[in-house]
Protein backbone atom coordinates (compact mmCIF):
# COMPACT_ATOMS: atom_id res chain seq x y z
CA UNK A 1 0.00 0.00 0.00
CA UNK A 2 2.68 2.54 0.98
CA UNK A 3 5.91 2.37 -0.97
CA UNK A 4 9.05 4.43 -0.71
CA UNK A 5 11.98 4.43 -3.08
CA UNK A 6 14.51 5.14 -0.32
CA UNK A 7 12.99 2.93 2.38
CA UNK A 8 15.19 0.12 3.67
CA UNK A 9 13.19 -2.79 5.04
CA UNK A 10 14.62 -4.36 8.18
CA UNK A 11 14.12 -8.11 8.61
CA UNK A 12 15.79 -8.52 11.99
CA UNK A 13 16.52 -6.02 14.73
CA UNK A 14 18.76 -6.94 17.66
CA UNK A 15 19.00 -4.90 20.85
CA UNK A 16 21.94 -5.71 23.14
CA UNK A 17 22.45 -4.63 26.73
CA UNK A 18 20.00 -1.73 26.57
CA UNK A 19 19.95 0.56 29.60
CA UNK A 20 17.48 3.42 29.66
CA UNK A 21 15.80 5.76 32.14
CA UNK A 22 13.10 8.09 30.82
CA UNK A 23 9.75 9.73 31.52
CA UNK A 24 7.46 8.48 28.76
CA UNK A 25 4.20 10.33 28.28
CA UNK A 26 1.08 10.21 26.20
CA UNK A 27 -1.45 12.98 25.66
CA UNK A 28 -4.44 12.64 27.97
CA UNK A 29 -2.92 9.59 29.66
CA UNK A 30 -0.04 10.79 31.77
CA UNK A 31 3.67 10.32 32.30
CA UNK A 32 5.75 8.13 34.59
CA UNK A 33 9.40 7.38 35.22
CA UNK A 34 10.34 4.05 33.65
CA UNK A 35 13.63 2.23 33.26
CA UNK A 36 15.07 -0.87 31.70
CA UNK A 37 18.35 -2.52 32.66
CA UNK A 38 20.54 -4.72 30.48
CA UNK A 39 17.76 -5.70 28.04
CA UNK A 40 18.69 -7.84 25.04
CA UNK A 41 16.37 -9.28 22.39
CA UNK A 42 16.07 -9.95 18.66
CA UNK A 43 12.88 -8.79 16.94
CA UNK A 44 11.86 -10.24 13.57
CA UNK A 45 9.86 -8.62 10.77
CA UNK A 46 6.19 -9.59 10.55
CA UNK A 47 5.87 -10.50 14.22
CA UNK A 48 3.80 -8.83 16.92
CA UNK A 49 5.49 -8.55 20.32
CA UNK A 50 3.83 -7.71 23.59
CA UNK A 51 5.54 -6.94 26.85
CA UNK A 52 3.46 -7.99 29.79
CA UNK A 53 4.33 -6.31 33.05
CA UNK A 54 3.51 -3.80 35.67
CA UNK A 55 3.70 -0.10 35.00
CA UNK A 56 7.26 1.20 35.36
CA UNK A 57 8.73 -2.28 34.79
CA UNK A 58 10.51 -1.24 31.59
CA UNK A 59 7.95 -1.83 28.82
CA UNK A 60 7.11 1.82 28.35
CA UNK A 61 10.81 2.77 28.31
CA UNK A 62 11.47 0.15 25.61
CA UNK A 63 8.57 1.49 23.52
CA UNK A 64 9.97 5.01 23.85
CA UNK A 65 13.41 3.91 22.62
CA UNK A 66 12.06 1.78 19.73
CA UNK A 67 9.80 4.64 18.64
CA UNK A 68 12.79 7.01 18.50
CA UNK A 69 11.56 9.14 21.38
CA UNK A 70 14.49 8.69 23.75
CA UNK A 71 18.17 7.86 23.43
CA UNK A 72 19.27 5.13 25.86
CA UNK A 73 22.11 5.46 28.35
CA UNK A 74 23.92 2.52 26.75
CA UNK A 75 23.46 -0.49 24.54
CA UNK A 76 23.81 -1.61 20.95
CA UNK A 77 21.42 -1.98 18.05
CA UNK A 78 21.96 -4.16 14.99
CA UNK A 79 19.72 -4.05 11.91
CA UNK A 80 20.16 -7.21 9.84
CA UNK A 81 23.49 -7.83 11.65
CA UNK A 82 24.85 -4.35 10.87
CA UNK A 83 25.63 -2.05 13.77
CA UNK A 84 23.48 1.08 13.82
CA UNK A 85 23.01 4.17 15.92
CA UNK A 86 19.87 4.44 18.04
CA UNK A 87 18.88 7.41 15.86
CA UNK A 88 17.73 4.74 13.38
CA UNK A 89 14.54 4.47 15.42
CA UNK A 90 13.61 8.08 14.62
CA UNK A 91 13.23 6.92 11.00
CA UNK A 92 11.72 3.48 11.62
CA UNK A 93 9.75 3.78 14.85
CA UNK A 94 6.30 5.13 15.59
CA UNK A 95 4.66 5.83 18.95
CA UNK A 96 0.97 4.94 18.71
CA UNK A 97 -1.57 7.27 20.22
CA UNK A 98 0.33 10.37 19.19
CA UNK A 99 1.30 12.15 15.99
CA UNK A 100 4.35 13.62 14.28
CA UNK A 101 4.59 16.41 16.84
CA UNK A 102 6.27 14.71 19.76
CA UNK A 103 7.66 17.76 21.51
CA UNK A 104 6.12 19.47 24.51
CA UNK A 105 2.35 19.87 24.55
CA UNK A 106 2.41 23.69 24.43
CA UNK A 107 4.32 23.68 21.14
CA UNK A 108 2.23 20.78 19.88
CA UNK A 109 -1.06 22.59 20.41
CA UNK A 110 0.16 25.72 18.64
CA UNK A 111 1.87 24.19 15.60
CA UNK A 112 0.33 20.74 15.14
CA UNK A 113 -1.26 20.02 11.80
CA UNK A 114 -4.44 18.07 11.30
CA UNK A 115 -4.32 14.30 11.01
CA UNK A 116 -5.34 14.73 7.36
CA UNK A 117 -2.35 17.01 6.65
CA UNK A 118 0.07 14.58 8.31
CA UNK A 119 -1.26 11.61 6.30
CA UNK A 120 -1.04 13.63 3.06
CA UNK A 121 2.55 14.62 3.90
CA UNK A 122 3.47 10.94 4.31
CA UNK A 123 1.74 9.97 1.07
CA UNK A 124 3.57 12.71 -0.87
CA UNK A 125 6.89 11.39 0.38
CA UNK A 126 6.25 7.63 0.25
CA UNK A 127 3.32 7.04 -2.09
CA UNK A 128 0.03 5.44 -1.17
CA UNK A 129 -3.65 6.13 -1.54
CA UNK A 130 -5.42 8.49 0.85
CA UNK A 131 -8.85 6.87 0.64
CA UNK A 132 -7.37 3.41 1.02
CA UNK A 133 -5.59 4.48 4.22
CA UNK A 134 -8.84 5.96 5.57
CA UNK A 135 -10.68 2.73 4.79
CA UNK A 136 -8.04 0.37 6.19
CA UNK A 137 -7.72 2.31 9.45
CA UNK A 138 -11.47 2.96 9.67
CA UNK A 139 -11.12 6.73 9.83
CA UNK A 140 -13.88 9.24 9.19
CA UNK A 141 -12.87 11.94 6.73
CA UNK A 142 -14.53 14.78 8.65
CA UNK A 143 -12.87 14.00 12.01
CA UNK A 144 -9.34 13.71 10.70
CA UNK A 145 -9.45 17.32 9.56
CA UNK A 146 -8.80 18.08 13.26
CA UNK A 147 -5.64 17.82 15.35
CA UNK A 148 -5.09 14.42 16.90
CA UNK A 149 -5.80 15.82 20.36
CA UNK A 150 -9.35 16.68 19.28
CA UNK A 151 -10.64 13.40 17.86
CA UNK A 152 -11.20 11.27 20.97
CA UNK A 153 -10.45 7.55 20.82
CA UNK A 154 -10.18 7.68 17.05
CA UNK A 155 -6.72 9.10 17.75
CA UNK A 156 -5.37 5.53 17.98
CA UNK A 157 -6.49 4.79 14.42
CA UNK A 158 -5.35 8.22 13.26
CA UNK A 159 -1.93 7.81 14.85
CA UNK A 160 -1.46 4.38 13.26
CA UNK A 161 -2.49 5.79 9.87
CA UNK A 162 0.01 8.66 10.15
CA UNK A 163 2.85 6.26 10.99
CA UNK A 164 1.80 3.94 8.18
CA UNK A 165 1.64 6.79 5.64
CA UNK A 166 5.16 7.75 6.72
CA UNK A 167 6.35 4.15 6.09
CA UNK A 168 7.31 3.43 9.68
CA UNK A 169 8.25 -0.19 10.39
CA UNK A 170 8.18 -0.35 14.19
CA UNK A 171 4.93 0.54 15.92
CA UNK A 172 5.09 0.91 19.70
CA UNK A 173 2.37 1.37 22.28
CA UNK A 174 2.66 3.19 25.58
CA UNK A 175 2.13 1.12 28.71
CA UNK A 176 -1.62 0.63 28.98
CA UNK A 177 -3.61 -0.73 31.90
CA UNK A 178 -5.73 -3.86 31.44
CA UNK A 179 -8.84 -1.67 31.29
CA UNK A 180 -7.44 0.41 28.42
CA UNK A 181 -6.37 -2.70 26.54
CA UNK A 182 -9.79 -4.31 26.85
CA UNK A 183 -11.58 -1.09 25.87
CA UNK A 184 -9.53 -0.79 22.67
CA UNK A 185 -8.99 -4.48 21.86
CA UNK A 186 -10.98 -4.47 18.58
CA UNK A 187 -9.27 -1.27 17.47
CA UNK A 188 -5.80 -2.67 18.18
CA UNK A 189 -6.55 -5.95 16.39
CA UNK A 190 -7.06 -3.96 13.18
CA UNK A 191 -3.54 -2.56 13.55
CA UNK A 192 -2.04 -5.97 14.24
CA UNK A 193 -3.46 -7.39 11.01
CA UNK A 194 -2.08 -4.46 9.01
CA UNK A 195 1.33 -4.31 10.68
CA UNK A 196 2.10 -8.03 10.30
CA UNK A 197 2.43 -7.59 6.54
Describe this structure in words.
With 197 residues, the chain is α+β, with helices and mostly antiparallel strands. The chain has a single domain, classed as P-loop containing nucleotide triphosphate hydrolases (Rossmann fold), CATH 3.40.50. Helix content is 34%, strand content 21%. It is built from eight helices and eight strands; from the N terminus they run ββββαββαβααααβαα. A four-stranded antiparallel sheet has the order 4-1-5-6. Strands 2-3 form a two-stranded antiparallel ribbon. Strand 5 and strand 6 form a beta hairpin. The longest helix is centred in the middle third of the chain and has 12 residues. The N and C termini lie close together (10 Å). The relative contact order is 0.18. The N terminus is likely disordered.
Give structural attributes.
P-loop_NTPase; alpha+beta; Rossmann fold; disordered N terminus
**What is the CATH class designation?**
Alpha Beta
> Strand order of the main beta sheet, please?
4-1-5-6
Helix content: 25-40%
Strand content: 15-25%
Q: Remind me, CATH topology?
A: Rossmann fold
Distance between the termini: 10 Å
Count of helical stretches:
8
Q: CATH superfamily assignment?
A: P-loop containing nucleotide triphosphate hydrolases
**Biggest sheet descriptor:** 4 strands, antiparallel
Compressed to H and E, one letter per element, the order equals EEEEHEEHEHHHHEHH
Computed CA radius of gyration, to the nearest angstrom: 16 Å
Number of strands: 8
Mean pLDDT: 83
The dominant shape is globular
* Structural class assignment: alpha+beta
Total number of domains: 1
Unreliable stretches? 1-5, 103-107
Second rung of CATH, namely the architecture: 3-Layer(aba) Sandwich
Amino acid sequence: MVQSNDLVLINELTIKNLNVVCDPKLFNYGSMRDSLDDFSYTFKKGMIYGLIGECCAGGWALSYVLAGRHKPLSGEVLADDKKQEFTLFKQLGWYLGDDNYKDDMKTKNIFAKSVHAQIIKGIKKNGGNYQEILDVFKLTDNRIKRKISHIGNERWNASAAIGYAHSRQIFCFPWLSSGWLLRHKARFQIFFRIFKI
